[in-house]
Specification:
This protein has five helices and six strands. The chain is of the alpha/beta class and 149 residues long. The longest helix has 17 residues.
Length: 149
């Protein structure tokens, strides 16, 4: 069975976790578990805001990694990828920010596209701002209409 590693990077995300962002990730993961072996790993990027406690109490199925300091985005992502690769050897990685909610069918659509286009090395969905759907929001950055960050 094809394996998928869903990787969630979080920094001071307790508010978003309480609002349901991780719940939506897990629900979208459940939507693909019939066709894929799915694991979810979360790296807390030294938040110290109660995120770790929230995950321990509310998301026991998630692999929780703790950064000894804020590794920032790129290094934190690399830690997650290395962990998931060594532990689970997934065929696909899906990277999610802890402050983004996920539509239930998003992972399935992304993986179906990936399987139809095997030469693509990396795919990322567009993440739209909840306050302004005409604005792209991705990985903590806002993009202008001409795609400048």
């Amino acid at each position: 069975m094809t394996a998928v590693g869903i990787l969630v990077l979080g920094y001071r995300a307790r508010k978003f976790l309480e609002e349901g962002s991780l719940r939506t990730v897990l629900e979208a993961a459940d939507q693909i578990s019939d066709a894929f072996r799915v694991t979810v790993s979360y790296l807390d990027n030294y938040s110290r805001d109660g995120s770790v406690q929230w995950i321990l109490e509310n998301a026991p199925r998630v692999d929780l990694l703790l950064a000894p300091q804020n590794l920032l985005y790129c290094e934190g992502t690399n830690v997650l990828v290395r962990f998931a690769f060594r532990r689970y050897a997934p065929d696909y990685f899906i990277l999610v920010d802890a402050d983004n909610a996920v539509d239930p069918g998003a992972f399935r659509a992304l993986l179906e596209y990936a399987e139809r286009h095997p030469r693509h090395g990396m795919l990322q969905p567009l993440v739209k701002s909840s306050s302004n759907p005409q604005t792209l929001y991705s990985c903590g950055h806002r993009y202008t209409a001409d795609h400048w960050c």
